[in-house]
Automatic annotation (TrEMBL):
Primary enzyme class: oxidoreductase
UniProt-recorded name of the protein: precorrin-2 dehydrogenase
Protein EC: 1.3.1.76
Domain Siroheme biosynthesis protein Met8 C-terminal: residue ranges: 163-229
InterPro entries found in the cross-reference section: Met8-like (IPR028161), Met8_C (IPR028162), NAD(P)-bd_dom_sf (IPR036291), Sirohaem_synthase_central (IPR028281), Sirohaem_synthase_N (IPR006367)
Membrane spanning residue stretches: 250-271
Length: 275
C-alpha cells in the first residue's frame, strides 16, 4: 500500500470526441487551449471580441470552420453554458472568470480558468504528443515552469519512434482480437499475456515495421503456435548472437575440444603401450 494517500489529482485521458467545449477569450492562452482541444475531435465554441483576437486564434478559426464556431462577442450569461461538456476561460478579467466558474459550478459543467487554480475543476499540464502516445506532466499547481522543464527531460529519453510503434501495436491488437474474439475468460488472459510478451520482447524500432503482412505472420507463427518469435526469426534470418551466447558457445567448444584431445592422447598411449 502507498504510504502517502491523497493530495494528488486524477490523471485521465478524457474522451471529448463530438462533445462541446466552450472557450471564453481569444488571447495567447486561448490559442493554446484551442490547439489542445482540437486534438480531441471535440466541437469548439470560441467567445471573444474580434478586436482582441490573437493571430493564432484567427488562424485556427479560418483553418477549421467546421470544428470551431466563433462568436465575435463577450460572454453574455448562463445560457452560453447550455449543452456544454467543458468550459475553459482564458480572460484578462479575473472577476468575470470567477463569475463564469460559479455559473459552471451551478450547472455542474467542468471548468478550467487559465492560471486561477482555486477556480479550476482540473488543471492543464505540459504535454508530449506523438500519435497515440500522450504524456502529461503535472506538478499539481506547484510549479508550471517546472512541468515545462520536466517535459524536456522526458523528451530527451524518447527516440521519436514510439508513437509509430504504438500505432502498429494497436493494429496488431485489433487483428489478434479478430482472430481470438471475446471478452475476459481464459482466452482473454492468454491474449493479454501474449500481447504483453510481444511488447516486452520486441524493440520499439522492430515494432514500427509491423505492416499487414508481418502482423499476419506474427499471428500465424506466434499466436497460433503459442510462442513469441522475434522479428529476425519471422523474417527467416538467424538471430544475431548475443555476447552471452557467444561466450557460452566458446566455452562449449573449449570443453569438447579438450575432451577430444584427451581421448586422442589416451588412445595413443593405449596403442603404444608395451604388449
Ligand atoms: C503546464 C502549463 C500547461 C498549459 O497552460 O497549457 C500550465 N502553465 C504553463 C506555463 C506557465 N504558467 C505560468 C508560468 C510562469 C512561471 C511559473 O509560475 O512557474 C508558466 C511557465 C511558462 O510560461 O513557461 C504562470 C501561472 N500558471 C498558473 C498560475 C497561477 C498560480 O499558480 O496561482 C500562474 C501565475 C503565477 C504567478 O502569478 O506567479 C497556474 C496553472 N498553470 C497550469 C498549467 C496549471 C498547473 C500545472 C502544473 O502545476 O503542472 C494551473 C494551476 C492552472 C491551468 O492553467 O490549468 C503551461 C506549460 C506548458 C508547456 O510549456 O509545455
Ligand atoms: N499568455 C501567457 O503566457 C500567460 C502566462 C501567464 C499567465 N497568463 C494569464 O492567463 C490569462 C489569459 O492570458 P492571455 O495572454 O491569453 O490574455 P490576453 O489579454 O491576450 O487575452 C484575453 C482575451 O480575453 C478576451 N476577453 C476579455 N473579457 C472577455 C469576456 N468577458 N468575454 C469574452 N472574451 C473576453 C479578450 O478580448 C482577449 O481576447 C490572463 O489572466 C493572464 O494573466 C497568461
Amino acid at each position: 500500500m502507498a504510504q502517502n494517500v491523497g493530495g494528488g489529482s486524477l490523471l485521465i485521458a478524457w474522451q471529448l470526441k463530438d462533445k462541446n467545449v466552450l472557450i471564453v477569450g481569444g488571447g495567447e492562452v486561448a490559442s493554446q487551449r484551442i490547439e489542445s482541444i482540437l486534438t480531441t475531435d471535440a466541437h469548439i465554441t470560441v467567445l471573444a471580441p474580434a478586436n482582441g483576437l490573437h493571430h493564432r486564434v484567427k488562424e485556427f478559426i479560418d483553418l477549421y470552420p467546421t470544428r470551431i464556431t466563433y462568436y465575435d462577442r463577450r460572454f453574455s450569461g448562463p445560457d452560453e453554458l447550455r449543452d456544454m461538456n467543458m468550459v475553459l476561460t482564458a480572460l484578462d478579467d479575473v472577476d468575470r472568470s470567477r463569475e463564469i466558474c460559479e455559473m459552471c459550478g451551478k450547472d455542474k459543467v467542468p471548468v478550467n480558468a487559465a492560471d486561477i487554480p482555486d477556480l479550476c475543476d482540473f488543471y492543464f499540464g505540459a504535454q508530449i504528443r506523438d500519435g497515440p502516445l500522450q504524456i502529461m506532466i503535472s506538478t499539481n499547481g506547484n510549479g508550471p515552469r517546472m512541468a515545462a522543464l520536466m517535459k524536456k527531460k522526458v523528451l530527451s529519453a524518447l527516440s521519436g519512434r514510439e508513437g509509430e510503434a504504438i500505432e502498429k501495436v494497436g493494429g496488431l491488437r485489433a487483428r489478434l482480437k479478430e482472430r481470438a474474439p471475446g471478452v475476459g475468460g481464459a482466452l482473454g488472459r492468454k491474449r493479454m499475456k501474449w500481447m504483453s510478451e510481444v511488447c516486452n520482447v520486441w524493440e520499439v524500432e522492430d515494432l514500427t515495421q509491423l505492416d499487414d503482412a508481418l502482423i499476419a505472420k506474427l499471428l500465424d507463427e506466434g499466436w497460433d503456435k503459442d510462442c513469441v518469435p522475434t522479428l529476425d526469426q519471422l523474417k527467416g534470418q538467424p538471430r544475431p548472437r548475443s555476447q552471452k551466447e557467444s561466450s557460452e558457445s566458446y566455452a562449449w567448444l573449449l570443453a569438447t575440444g579438450s575432451f577430444t584431445l584427451g581421448a586422442i592422447c589416451a588412445t595413443v598411449i593405449f596403442l603404444s603401450r608395451p604388449r
